[in-house]
Amino acid sequence: MSSDLSVNHLTGIKDLPERDIQLIFETADHFKEVINRPIKKVPSLRDITVANLFFENSTRTKLSFELAEKRLSADVVNFSASGSSVSKGESLTDTVNNILAMKIDMVVMRHPSPGAAVFLSQRVNSRIINAGDGAHEHPTQALLDTYSIREKFGDVAGKKIAIVGDILHSRVALSDILCLQKCGARVKVCGPQTLIPKFVTSLGVEVETDFNKALAWCDVVNMLRIQHERQDIKYFPSLREYTMQYGLTKERLNNIAKPLVVMHPGPINRGVELASDVADSENAVILNQVENGVAVRMAALYLLAQKIAR
User: Fold this and answer.
1) Average predicted confidence (pLDDT) for the chain
2) What is the C-alpha to C-alpha distance for residues 161 and 218, in angstroms, rounded to an integer?
3) pLDDT of residue 186
4) Confidence band of 228 (pLDDT split at 50, 70, 90)
């Protein structure tokens, strides 16, 4: 396998070949070992400057990227849209060009507009990693989710994954579907019909509205939160009714005649999509996902840094 990525930017899973995904995973294996050492830093990105541009609020993704960058010894610049000239009407291109004039090598960007990372990659001379663009894609989350399944089972191919919840507004769902399928998994989505986008069947994904049937079918269930901040109408009568229909409880888990792996991209709405005793149970690999997120992001940063012209 080549030791170089075939892409210059990580803007989405859609354009990422399966061999690149496997290369990221193999590199993440190495960095997973590094971050579990007593001394957790390596000099791989010394003299590389990375700017974290977050035009939307983020806690876990931003912290994970910042930690990954510092573990690799990069110089890190953090930029938040709130309190910046963006609030005065400055365009995305002008904001970034001003930052790149400071000789930034790599940009990690979260933006509310779908396609913002691709737009940026076509206009600036810097490596771009998409940390989420609206309800479109979130490639590093999909990579860490798939990596976590690979870690649990040894292989992703042939595994059955149910993604449950707000599929319509979820960038994680789309990226997960694409990544899991490229690695040979079977994917089914589950949720209220109003939260299942019409295009999803064109991706080769099955739709199941009965949560109990989806649980009986799958090896792994990935629970998504309801994204109220992206919803402009009511998609279901009440949170209580949603929880009754699609909330994962200990009782539901116990009714399944096999052990299920439970995942969640965070943040968890405890008592809504996931009961606390399930989130904290041995079925859940949610904290493994967090740890794997640092290793996978270290791998992506490291491999893209090799593409920077010296």
Assistant:
1) 90
2) 5
3) 98
4) very low
Q: Is residue 62 part of a domain?
A: yes
Q: CA-CA distance, 63 to 126, in Å (whole number)?
A: 21
In this structure, are 235 and 296 located in the same domain?
Answer: no
What 304-307 contacts at long range (C-beta under 8 Å, 24+ apart), as own/partner pairs, is 304/5, 304/8, 304/9, 304/10, 304/106, 304/127, 304/129, 305/44, 305/45, 305/48, 305/105, 305/106, 305/127, 306/4, 306/5, 307/4, 307/5, 307/8, 307/127
Look at the chain and report how many structural domains it folds into: 2
Contact 96, 39 (CB under 8 A): no
Q: Report pLDDT digits (tens) over 123-161.
A: 888 899 999 998 899 999 999 999 999 999 999 999 999
Specify the CATH number for the domain of residue 251.
Answer: 3.40.50.1370
At residue 52, the 3 state secondary structure works out as strand
DSSP3 helix / strand / coil % (the chain, rounded to 5)? 45, 15, 40
Residue 267 preceded by cis peptide, ω within 30: yes
Tell me, yes or no, whether 167 and 41 share the same domain.
Answer: no
For 274, phi then psi, to 5°, come to -145, 125
Does the pLDDT at position 285 exceed 90?
Answer: yes
In one-letter notation, the amino acid at residue 169 is H
User: How many other CB atoms are there within 10 angstroms of residue 16's CB atom?
Assistant: 22
Domain membership of residue 241 as a residue range: 139-289
Whether the predicted pLDDT of 169 surpasses 80: yes
Per-residue pLDDT reduced to its tens digit, 52-81: 999 888 889 999 999 999 999 999 999 876
What number of other Cβ atoms are within 10 A of residue 244's Cβ? Answer: 11
Q: Where does the pLDDT of residue 232 fall: very low under 50, low under 70, confident under 90, or very high at 90 and above?
A: very low
Query: Which of 93-120 are b and which e, b meaning 16 or more Cβ less than 10 Å from the residue's Cβ?
Result: eebbeebbeeebbbbbbbbeeeebbbbb
143 & 285 share domain: yes
Q: How far is Cα 39 from Cα 226, in angstroms, rounded to an integer?
A: 39
At 118, is the pLDDT very low, low, confident or very high (cuts 50, 70, 90)? very high
